[in-house]
């Protein structure tokens, strides 16, 4: 328990700054996903307009539809990872070697 607290404190230390990678190695899955994400963000779509409540729609219905959609997408992602990542093959959940 003390080790977990110490790791938590080190992770959120005030004098530390998270510095994400500037780029990804060409040809890797991360590179391709990053490229697709940037393309969708730079496609000229106004995200504020996309998520606005359509005229005449009930806000609770609008939220419910999107919550279910979000759940389904997360469930699909989990199902994909679950098949390949077990306690034996992935003892520590991480996005890389560190």
Automatic annotation (TrEMBL):
Keywords (A to Z) from UniProt: Kinase, Metal-binding, Transferase, Zinc
Pfam families: Mob1_phocein (PF03637)
One Gene Ontology MF term: kinase activity
SUPFAM superfamilies: Mob1/phocein
Annotated Zn(2+) binding sites: 85, 90
Chain coiled-coil ranges: none
Matching InterPro entries: MOB_kinase_act_fam, MOB_kinase_act_sf
Protein's UniProt keywords contain Membrane: no
Keyword Membrane: no
The protein, known as: MOB kinase activator 3B-like
Originating species: Elysia marginata
């Amino acid at each position: 328990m003390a080790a977990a607290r110490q790791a938590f404190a080190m992770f959120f230390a005030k004098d530390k700054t998270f510095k994400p990678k500037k780029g990804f190695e060409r040809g890797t899955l991360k590179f391709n996903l990053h490229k697709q994400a940037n393309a969708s963000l730079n496609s000229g779509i106004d995200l504020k307009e996309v998520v606005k409540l359509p005229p005449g729609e009930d806000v609770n219905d609008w939220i419910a539809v999107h919550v279910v959609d979000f759940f389904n997408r997360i469930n699909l992602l989990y199902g994909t990872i679950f098949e390949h990542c077990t306690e034996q093959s992935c003892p520590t959940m991480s996005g890389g070697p560190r």
